[in-house]
Amino acid sequence: MNELALPPLAALILRYGAVEISERSVPDNLAPVDPDLLEAAANDTSLDDWSADERQRAYAALQRCTDAMQRARSELMFYLRFRSPDDGVPDWVADDLLEMARYHLADENGTAHSDGDKSTIRVRYEDVIRRLAQLAQEDEQRGASESGNSGLMTNGAPRIFSRRTTWRL
Does pLDDT of 1 surpass 50? Predict the structure, then answer.
C-alpha cells in the first residue's frame, strides 16, 4: 500500500492563513485563539508570551487540525487503494490533502452560509473527490487490484476433512 505522509500543520496554516484556520479549528466551547499563537504553536516556537489558558486553547485547535488531516488522509488512501507501489502517489495529492483537511475543519455540512448555497470550500472538496475517483477508476481499469497488484491469487485454508477422516461419521 502506498504511504502518504501528513504534511506539517504549519503547511495548512501557511496555505489558508492563520486567521481562517484559527477560526475553523477552535471548538465551539472554547474562546477564539489568537492567530499568532496558533501559528507559533504549529511552528513549535516559544509560547511563553501567552497564558496557560491561551496555550491550552491553541493546543486543542492544533489537535483538531491534526484530526482533520488524519481524516483527509484516510479518505485519500481509500481512493489510492488501486495504486501500485511502483506507481507511487501523484504530487498533486499533497495539495488535495490540505484542501480536504480544510473541508473537514469547516462545519459539518461544508456550507458557510445558512441560506444553503454551496460554499467554495465544499465545491473545491467535491472537485478533489471527483479527481481522486477518476484516478481510482483509471487504476482499476488498468487491472490493478486493491493490493496494487494485478492478477488473481487465491489463498485458502488446507482441507480439514476428507473421505478417509470422515468415514466413521
Answer: no
All three cell numbers of 52, joined, read 496557560
Q: What is the pLDDT of residues 69-109, one digit of tens each?
A: 999 999 998 888 877 777 778 888 888 999 999 999 886 54
d(CA 167, CA 169): 6
CA distance 16 to 22: 10
Q: Which amino acid is at 169?
A: L
Contact indicator for 82, 136 with CB cutoff of 8 Å: yes
- The grid coordinates of residue 89 equal 502517489
Distance CA 134, CA 132 (A): 5
Q: Extract the C-alpha cell encoding 129.
A: 473527490
Q: Could you tell me the pTM of the whole model?
A: 0.74
Angle between helical axes of 9-16 and 18-25 (0-180°, round to 10): 120
Count the Cβ atoms, other than its own, within 10 Å of residue 132: 19
User: Which whole-number Å values give the CA distances from 137 to 76, 80, 91, 140, in the listed order?
Assistant: 14, 10, 18, 5
First to last CA, the chain: 46
Q: Distance between CA atoms of 127 and 144, rounded to whole angstroms?
A: 24
